[in-house]
Amino acid sequence: MVLILNQWATQQDMDHLTRLIEEKALEWALHPGEVRNQIHVLGDLTQETEAFWRTQPGVQQVYGLAKPYKLANKTHRKSNTQIPIGSQQLGSEDLVIFGGPCALESEEQGLASALMLRDLGLEIMRASAFKPRSSPYSFQGLGVDGLHILKRIRERTGVLVETEVMDVRDVETAAELVDVIRIGARNMQNFDLLKEAGLVQTPVILKRGMANTIREFLLATEYILQGNPNVILCERGIRSFETAYRNTLDVGAIAVLKQETHLPVIADPSHSAGNKTLVPALSLAAVAAGADGLLIEVHPDPSVALSDGDQSLYPHQFMNLMGDLRKDASYDIVVGAAALDGLPAFLGERYPQRRIAAIGDAEALRRHGDRLSAVLPERTLVLEVPSGEDSKSRAEKARLEDELLSRRLGRDTVIVGFGGGVVTDLAGFVAATYLRGVPFIAVPTTLLAAVDASVGGKTGINTAHGKNLVGVFRQPAAVFADTGFLRTLPEPEFLNGVAEALKMAATSDHRETATLTRFIAAAVRIKAAVVAADERESGLREVLNFGHTIGHGLEHATDYRLAHGAAVAIGMIAESRMARAAGFLEREAEDRLHTLIDAVGLPIRPPDEVERGRVLAALGGDKKARGGEPRFVMLEAIGRVRNRDGRGRAAYSFPLPAGVVDSGLAAIGL
Fold first, then answer.
1. What is the domain-level CATH number for residue 173?
2. N or C: which end of the chain has fewer CB within 10 A?
3. What is the CATH number of the domain that holds 634?
4. Is residue 10 situated within a structural domain?
5. Are residues 299 and 387 in the same domain?
């Protein structure tokens, strides 16, 4: 090992280091330099970590300290391990939440939990089929039968499943039936079980034992890493003298693990706390320390849970925590007349020395290509996309991906989407799937993209069956909405954005409607302002589909010749009439919205060639439909949407009787 001393190291610092080295029975030799001295150290160097030596007074760098955990350490790796969990990449910028009950108690309980998680936008459920219990009289789980139940739940709901295994005989079966395997804290040094987990390729969560050091924890991972690279480290709390809570969540361990290894690190605040009231605070602390994900227990009714009800959140508590976590995982949205000028500093701070690939709309590059080039590195690869909705296709996505691959761009790539909604949707989708996910930055050049497509994390492409039917939710790293680009927009394109801004005001605070009216009056004249949408929708994304169910049907019926903003405006006319026909909305509110849409120059009727039958056919294939039955967001007032179903449960879109749908279509002349 070589200790490189900094140029300000004193004789006192050197004396301290040599005494420390000798106390550990190591040999040393001083090598003076012109600016910095070096101390070469020989002996058993596994006694202390690199961090120990690096933090000693006078030490600037440490070289050559062999890690006892050879596969887990990041010394010889260019990038961290990323593990796909649905559309997310655990170990990237994504915060992955494994939510669900401590134990799978029955198929009904597991299915209810999975549906709840799906409604909140989560993609994976934790639920143990095997439960190690201190008492032989406690619920032990459903065993192998539980694994088959979890598989059926995944097939019915689309929610991925994660479960604990305890026995080497169950590893292979679990790997075939579930998506992620967990080895609990009590089995952290069950070496036969670790070796067996190394024989499969299913991702494995390994929990740190309650009395184990970080070094012991990482050495345990080596057994799995011998054959399975998909290891997820989990800090679940260590046993201490404190009795106010079950275990101490060691957030310092999270930071050390992120520093020492290339593996994803998650935390289990539920098992640390043993008390549901502490879970939110510990969750936020773990994320602040750098955790890539969380294991959180949530039960449909913790009061009747067969395992760990005291630490399991109620659904409403879990929903509130998800809102807090999404706020913490927010991203920059920069809006202004020179917003793009901030891009170089952002890239330099967040992504130094990374390759940049800009995917740009042909017309946007023609108008503003020089402006983009001025803020991107010289080696930026620029890929041009033909203007128009036809580019939002599988073929164009494949062409872009093949071009990136042929240029050998790796996981150190950052993709910048430059253009309107077509390009931000397409480029975002490419970024979400290229090499299993690379960072994406949106630079919208239209008002529609600035207030809608670039914000909120929806990416995707169109198919012959409908619009945006293939894609993923993937938040951008940042959005730079430069209002200077809006000055060159033709009026129809500008009004497309106005329609989306109007939709947001209609479904949010009613006071914003007056603000928006003033905004539109000024914006139509000078075309130089923008309304920023709130990206933190707290799982209530369906609210933003107001006007879109009918709107997408109209787009499909015109083969996408009808502009998106125009279609949404007409859709809001139809769907507000449906809300009135269903008894949710007063006529005064409907008339107010109708008048505003008409006053700003947006259409209130579709083109004459639109056929009612084609619109109805498109509704059944809409991505929000369930079982082929379309669903609609219903206004109850300007600024308020209906958010409960007939049983009082949270819901934001609803199936409607055919007569109610007919009334909406009649309101727009169909």
1. 3.20.20.70
2. N
3. 1.20.1090.10
4. yes
5. no
Q: How far apart are CA 559 and CA 363, in angstroms?
A: 21
Stated as kind and residue range, the H or E segment containing 356 is strand 355-361
- Domain of 570 in residue numbering reads as 538-667
* Mean pLDDT in residue range 160-173: 95
As a 3-state breakdown, the chain gives helix, strand, coil percent values, each rounded to 5, of 45, 20, 35
Could you tell me the CATH number of the domain that includes residue 20? 3.30.70.1140
pTM of the model: 0.53
- pLDDT of residue 463 exceeding 80: yes
pLDDT category of residue 456 using cuts at 50, 70 and 90: low
Which residues is 333 bridged to in the sheet? Answer: 479
Question: Is residue 563 domain-shared with residue 649, that is, in the same domain?
Answer: yes
pLDDT, one tens digit per residue, over 214-237 is 999 999 999 999 999 999 999 999
Same domain? 374 vs 465: yes
116-120, 193-197, 210-214, 310-314: range with lowest mean pLDDT: 116-120
List the 27-31 sheet strands across, edge first: 27-31, 38-42, 2-5, 59-63
Q: How far apart are CA 601 and CA 256, in angstroms?
A: 58
Taking the CA atoms of residue 38, residue 44, residue 45 and residue 48 in that order, the dihedral angle to the nearest 10 degrees is -120
Handedness of CA 661, 666, 667, 670 (dihedral sign): positive
Number of domain units in the chain = 4
Cα distance between residue 349 and residue 313, in whole Å: 37
Question: Given this model, what pLDDT does residue 453 score?
Answer: 58
Distance between CA atoms of 477 and 75, rounded to whole angstroms?
27
* Same domain? 320 vs 451: no
Secondary structure (DSSP) of 569-598: HHHHHHHHHHHHHTTSS-HHHHHHHHHHHH
- 174, part of any domain: yes
336 inside domain? yes
- Which pLDDT tens digit goes with each residue over 401-450? 999 999 999 888 999 999 988 999 999 999 999 987 889 999 998 877 77
* Residues pairing with 234 in the sheet: 207, 266
